[in-house]
Amino acid sequence: MKSAVVIGRIMATRKVESLTGVKLLLLRRTGWDGTPMKEVLVAADAVGAGAGEHVFFVEARDASIAVQTNPPIDAAIVGIIDGADFESGY
Amino acid sequence: MKSAVVIGRIMATRKVESLTGVKLLLLRRTGWDGTPMKEVLVAADAVGAGAGEHVFFVEARDASIAVQTNPPIDAAIVGIIDGADFESGY
Amino acid sequence: MKSAVVIGRIMATRKVESLTGVKLLLLRRTGWDGTPMKEVLVAADAVGAGAGEHVFFVEARDASIAVQTNPPIDAAIVGIIDGADFESGY
Amino acid sequence: MKSAVVIGRIMATRKVESLTGVKLLLLRRTGWDGTPMKEVLVAADAVGAGAGEHVFFVEARDASIAVQTNPPIDAAIVGIIDGADFESGY
Amino acid sequence: MKSAVVIGRIMATRKVESLTGVKLLLLRRTGWDGTPMKEVLVAADAVGAGAGEHVFFVEARDASIAVQTNPPIDAAIVGIIDGADFESGY
User: Fold this and answer.
1) Which tens digits make up the pLDDT trace of D42-65?
2) Fewer CB in a 10 Å sphere around the end CB: N or C, chain E?
3) Cβ separation of C87 and E60 shorter than 8 Å?
4) Does residue B85 belong to any structural domain of this protein?
5) Is the pLDDT of residue B89 over 70?
6) Which residues of D have a CB under 8 Å from any CB of E?
């Protein structure tokens, strides 16, 4: 899993049928501590994430099983991050 | 998902049978705002995209489920981009 | 498979249902001899690994089959490394 | 899909059973206009390609579904390229 | 498929159950002509490869179908290389 912040969304009227009703969100990759990175990608939303929320997403075939219609997607948001506990000494 | 612009197509007479009737389009990767990139790839067309259209595509196994014959492909166009809404402040 | 050391964990209350009860651990990549690398990632835990343990994990679709609920994950810890035998002369 | 030119083949007597009878070809990656690249890989042949032919291949799980025995392969040649039409102006 | 030489093995007592009895070998990547590279990885053994042998392996989901218990692995040795025939002139 990788982490990101939601920065917008994509509008698409013509698309494959199983994508109907699937929200496509623009994400900016972040470190697990929230530090923003350069990479911007689009992922399907499986948890109801909103702009500015810190989320984690899966890529490739696993993305498809996160959404009920099993649409052809290769990235999906599967959780909202509450926080990260780094153990000291490692 | 990644975004691209359609720049041409590939002709192939000898191919695996499940690719019969599948349109193979040449794409140039773009940013989500439409900025063209260097990378050129070929993807199967699942939405009837034409030259110059701004599309988004999926890669790997997900590409195969976008086309009815489930052909052995690793990239498929699954939607035409109408626009992108970037939320300010993120 | 790649090797890593467990350095913490991620908390997430809102997430897809099949992730309920799945421990999400922060890993730092290491060489197979234990040398730490820069990359930090999050993987589901399928073996009960704890902080500081030297583990190996799988990526992509294979991660999902390591956990009973088949959640949408793309990295899973599948073993704890006891040691590595390097044959001399290769 | 990516394009390549066939530059040779691999011999292997001891292999997993589902690879029996599967031709393993050495490919040099090319651009879609035929320009040779540095990368050399091995792919299973699903179309009867010969030395010097300009082909396109799929990678990852999709490769396996291109060959009848569904062998554990991660690259397969699925078509011979007749030509590429680049639309002007994009 | 990629090529490698077997340089050792990994010991792991605590692991997911489907990995019981699966030999995990340390590989050093090589070119198809046998030239050693820097990258070292671990792959499950599906052909009974030994130290010093020149092998080829598959990655991602395809690795899993090479081993009877379908364990969560993302790399598997599927053949021993006898030799490579490079066609002259390409």
Assistant:
1) 999 999 999 999 999 998 767 888
2) C
3) no
4) no
5) no
6) 5-16, 19, 24, 26, 28, 40-43, 51-52, 60-61, 63-64, 70-75
Helix (H, G, I), strand (E, B) or coil at A64: helix
- Pick E60's closest partner by Cβ from D7, D51, D61: D61
Q: What is the CA radius of gyration of chain A?
A: 14
Total domains in chain B come to 1
- Per DSSP bridges, beta strands D75-80 and D36-45 are parallel
For residue D62, the chain E residues in CB contact (below 8 A) are none
Counting every residue written for chain D, the total comes to 90
Contact B42, B63 (CB under 8 A): no
Cα–Cα distance measured from residue C29 to residue C39, given in angstroms and rounded to the nearest whole number: 6
Q: Distance between CA C72 and CA A43 in Å, rounded?
A: 13
Judged by CB atoms closer than 8 Å, whether chains meet at C8 and A83 is answered as: no
pTM of the full predicted structure? Answer: 0.84
> Min CA distance, C15 vs chain E (Å)?
23
Considering the domain boundaries, does residue C85 fall inside one? no
Residue B6 inside a domain? The answer is yes
Please tell me which of the candidates A3, A65, A79 has its beta carbon nearest to residue C14: A79
Q: What is the ipTM of this complex?
A: 0.82
Chains that touch C (3 or more CB pairs under 8 A): A, E
Q: Using DSSP, state whether C20 is helix, strand or coil.
A: coil
pLDDT digits (tens, 9 = 90+) for C39-84: 999 999 999 999 999 999 998 767 888 888 888 888 888 889 888 8
Supply the range of the domain harboring residue B39: 2-80
Chain A residue numbers with beta carbons less than 8 Å from the beta carbon of C74 are: 1, 58-60, 62
Q: Give the CATH number of the domain where residue E22 resides.
A: 2.40.50.220
Task: Establish, for the pair of chains D and E, how many residue pairs have beta carbons separated by less than 8 Å.
Answer: 98
Contact between B44 and B67 (Cβ < 8 Å): yes
- The answer to whether the CB atoms of E72 and C46 lie below 8 A apart is yes
Is the residue at C19 inside a domain? yes
What contacts E48, CB < 8 A, 6 or more positions away?
D14
